[in-house]
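USER:
I wish I could look at a protein chain and see how it folds. I am handing you a single protein, as its sequence and its fold in token form. As I understand it, each token names a local backbone shape. I hope you can help me see how the letters and the tokens relate. The protein I mean follows directly.
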Amino acid sequence: MRIIFVITILCVATACRTKSSYFNIQGQKFDNKVIEQLPIYDSLSHLLIENYSAIRPHFQEGNSFEYIWYRHGNELYKILPQEPGTKVKQWFKQLGDSLIFGFTLYKDSSVKIFVRDTYLDAYKLNVRERLSFNPKGATIKNREFKTRDTLLNKNWEYWIWFDDQVDIF
């Protein structure tokens, strides 16, 4: 009887384990469309850094300013002067929803671009694509979570974060 109980528990535990371990992270490709648009991302990052003094008073907890277009909409115009705010909106429109949905400007003048988040239901896995701009020089960071990353040039890192946590809103 105990053996049947143990076997049943093992079968249930095996069936319930996450499928994300079966996803081939190293096989995940970097999107050439993202890489081709690097000049626009570069222009956006430089514009944000040029307007650092206007953005700095809006840093959250003194460390960074995050802008997500679908959450913050036109609030950018409350922070940036009209001309840079309009340029940012134009670049978002030019890149489109599939290549950008936000950014974070940090106090060290580095910028993280939120490219896209894709949920893979079959693996119960969020695939989060990001670009990081560091004016002092990009490096591959040793992150605590599953990632795949590459340096695109001296200032840009393209990284993909594989997150098996499900966001609940």
The first helix runs from residue 2 to 16. The chain has one domain: 31-163. The two ends are 44 Å apart (CA to CA). The helical segments are 2-16, 32-36, 38-50, 52-55, 69-72, 76-79, 82-95.
